From TrEMBL, chain A:
Keywords: Cell membrane, Membrane, Transmembrane, Transmembrane helix. The chain crosses the membrane at residues 21-42, 269-292, 304-321, 327-350, 362-390. It is found in: Cell membrane. It comes from the Bacteria. It comes from Bifidobacterium biavatii DSM 23969. InterPro entries: ABC-4/HrtB_transporter, ABC3_permease_C. This is ABC transporter permease. It is a multi-pass membrane protein. Its main location: membrane. The keyword Chaperone does not apply. One of its GO terms (cellular component) is plasma membrane. Residues 275-387 form the ABC3 transporter permease C-terminal domain.
TrEMBL record, chain B:
SMART domains: AAA (SM00382). InterPro entries: AAA+_ATPase (IPR003593), ABC_transporter-like_ATP-bd (IPR003439), ABC_transporter-like_CS (IPR017871), ABC_transpr_LolD-like (IPR015854), MacB-like_ATP-bd (IPR017911), P-loop_NTPase (IPR027417). Residues 4-257 form the ABC transporter domain. It is an enzyme of class 3 (hydrolase). GO terms for molecular function: ATP binding; ATP hydrolysis activity; transmembrane transporter activity. It comes from the Bacteria. This is ABC transporter ATP-binding protein. GO terms for cellular component: plasma membrane. Gene3D superfamilies: P-loop containing nucleotide triphosphate hydrolases.
Length: 405, 257
């Protein structure tokens, strides 16, 4: 059996005090879960926000009155919905001052019923004029989307035969897009010509998404690029223009504002989480400091023995530091493992529950966070032992250690 | 050259704002192979004197020279190395490490040396000498074979020392499983592991019965006979029969008994 060495001494000390060691490890584990888990969630939320910003090519969305909230939900991470104009409004909007480019989209929600594989957002777009979705689809699907075909978002469950059933019709899936962390992941995309067919299929199920008379011309939103013009001014111009055609009561959504408000919400959440984490960390550190200080008192005799046997003050500090670093490392590994198991496999669920853009960061970012989490855990352990180490490195350590004897 | 040479050694402490000398102008010289005992009432500075000799306390004035080294002038690293290699210290209170087995407690000072391999403990084989030269007065000083030691000379030497103190059967135990007397004997084995030139023992027979006292004192005597300078503080009159010289410490001052 191998005998004791100076290097193995801290591990023997930890092994022979299982309760104290376990208590310290649990504290570090909790701190690491909070730090690493919080950082991972925050990073994923920021990645989702960035992705959302990249996917928003329009400066202004013109939608039917009182559907602004539904439209905003489409941009962030809300549930799917159906809404539409009953007027042909695209051309009227295009005529307004300050409008440089327009495209129309149609939004239809499938049903959470036997007729559909799942409840998804069906987005009809015009490949000829679209400047929002088409570039994103083109970046991943080079061919032209044919009538009757769909492109599926990242979270859509495509059947083994490459189709998705919507309103009792099997739509062939031409391609599936990469994850964006936004509601686009829960959407299927069809070209505008396919929309009447979708409406027809929905009518056959007894749940017509759009009345038949609007099936050929229904659009849900007109997406506008304003160039250098102020979007609020352009919105006012659009209101004036369509009013002349007898249309009133439009709704306006400003994607930039949605992004800004989402960012503000996100920043607030991250700010509060950071504050909570800081308080939690300080509390944990105080507990660790108290445990180390208390164990120093009960271990005075042990450290006096080391000095008698010829240990330098540096060796005593080394023993304490290696013990605390080991506690930090073990706690850090357990904390990172636990947080990873709780977060990484459940990205879709977390994104759905948060109702915010949520995109899993890449492997490199996760590895960097793991490294930072481990460094944080070990540093926490080391900081907690610093008071004990300072006392040990004082002159006449032996006198300090034998105080009260 | 004496192994230990103390000149006008004084250490003052402050109690309730007033200084007092726990050790007061002490002179002492001990040669290699000499066995010296210090007696005296508790609280008269004996333990403080031992701590000054080992460099664990700094003197207020005077000098302590151990094996030619002025202890007070040494930096922490050198003083620690001296404590590890030149001095063996058996303390008054139990200072065995509760997290280590008896065997590892004895071996630990040998692995604290700079080389990390316990060179001092390996050189020569003095500890096993008692096992080779049978002492009719000692019940069993032959180290039993330890097949699990393999080629580990440190473990061999530790077992031999423990056997010479009749506690080798406790090698795998933890200190909390030992009696006070057994702990004291293990402490002595630990103090001898690095073949010190100066062995300091603070009441080494304090917890022992008469038979165990005899075993310990014979070992200390033989250690002195093998060339180690031994300085012992004791309250045990039976222990004085084994020493070459007895001194008395009274109110910090040392004089012949």
């Amino acid at each position: 059996m191998p005998h004791i060495t100076l290097g193995s001494l801290p591990f023997e000390n930890l092994k022979r005090k299982p309760f104290r060691t376990a208590a310290l490890v649990i504290v570090v584990t909790m701190l690491t879960v909070a730090f690493y888990g919080g950082a991972l969630l925050a990073t994923n939320l920021k990645a989702g926000l960035n992705s959302m910003q990249e996917r928003m090519g329009a400066d202004l969305m013109v939608v039917p009155q009182n559907t602004g909230t539904k439209a905003e939900a489409l941009l962030t991470s809300g549930s799917s919905s159906t809404f539409y104009f009953t007027n042909d409004i695209e051309q009227a909007v295009a005529k307004a001052d300050g409008v440089s480019q327009v495209t129309a989209q149609t939004y239809i929600s499938s049903l959470a019923a036997a007729c559909c594989d799942e409840k998804v957002q069906i987005i009809g777009f015009d490949p000829a004029t679209d400047f929002v979705i088409e570039p994103w689809i083109t970046s991943q699907y080079e061919r032209t989307l044919k009538d009757g075909e769909v492109v599926a978002g990242a979270n859509i469950n495509v059947s083994a035969n490459g189709t998705i059933k919507l309103y009792n019709h099997e739509f062939p899936v031409a391609a599936q897009l990469a994850s964006t962390g936004t509601s686009l992941d829960n959407s299927v995309f069809v070209n505008e010509s396919t929309i009447p067919a979708v409406v027809s299929y929905s009518a056959k199920t007894g749940h017509a998404a759009i009345p038949a008379e609007y099936a050929d011309k229904a659009i849900s939103a007109v997406l506008v690029k304003t160039g250098d013009a102020d979007t609020k001014t352009v919105a006012a111009n659009i209101a004036d223009t369509v009013k002349a055609d007898g249309v009133t009561g439009l709704g306006y959504v400003y994607p930039g504002g949605v992004t800004a408000s989402t960012k503000a919400s996100l920043d607030a959440i991250i700010g509060y989480a950071g504050l909570f984490l800081a308080v939690f960390w300080i509390m944990g550190l105080i507990v660790l400091l108290a445990v180390f200080a208390s164990s120093m008192n009960e271990r005075k005799r042990e450290f006096a023995a080391y000095r008698i046997m010829g240990a330098t003050r540096g060796m005593l500090v080394g023993v304490i530091v290696r013990e605390s670093a080991t506690v930090g490392l073990i706690g850090g590994l357990i904390g990172i493992g636990s947080a990873s198991l709780a977060i990484l496999p459940f990205n879709t669920l977390i994104g759905a529950r948060l109702q915010l853009p949520y995109l899993q960061s890449g492997a490199f970012t996760v590895l960097a966070l793991i490294a930072a989490g481990l460094a944080f855990a070990v540093a926490t352990g080391l900081i907690a032992s610093v008071a004990a180490a300072v006392r040990l490195s004082a002159p006449e350590t032996y006198l300090t250690l034998r105080e009260g004897e | 050259m004496p192994v230990l040479d103390i000149r006008s050694l004084t250490r003052e402490f402050t109690r309730r704002g007033k200084p007092f000398a726990a050790v007061d102008h002490v002179d002492l010289s001990i040669d290699a192979g000499e066995f010296v005992a210090i007696v005296g009432r508790s609280g008269n500075g004996k333990t403080t004197l031992l701590n000054l000799i080992t460099g664990l306390l700094r003197p207020t004035s005077g000098t302590v020279t151990v094996d030619g080294l002025d202890v007070a002038s040494l930096d922490d690293r050198t003083a620690s190395a001296m404590r590890n290699r030149t001095i063996g210290f058996v303390t008054q209170s139990a200072t065995l490490l509760g997290n280590l087995t008896v065997l590892d407690n004895v071996i630990l000072p040998a692995v604290m040396t700079n080389d990390g391999h316990g060179t001092a403990a390996r050189n020569g084989d003095a500890a096993t000498a008692p096992a080779k030269t049978a002492d009719p007065d000692m019940p069993d000083v032959i180290a039993p074979g330890h097949d699990d030691d393999g080629d580990d000379p440190l473990a061999h030497r530790a077992h031999a020392l423990l056997a010479s103190l009749q506690v080798d059967d406790l090698a795998g135990c933890y200190p909390k499983e030992l009696s006070g007397g057994e702990m004291r004997r293990v402490s002595i084995a630990r103090a001898l592991i690095n073949r010190p030139k100066l062995l300091i023992a603070d009441e080494p027979t304090g917890d022992l019965d008469a038979d165990s006292t005899a075993v310990v004192m014979r070992l200390l005597r033989r250690t002195a006979d093998d060339g180690t300078a031994v300085l012992m503080v004791t309250h045990d009159p039976d222990a004085l029969a084994y020493v070459d010289r007895t001194l008395r410490m009274d109110r910090g001052q040392l004089a012949a008994a």
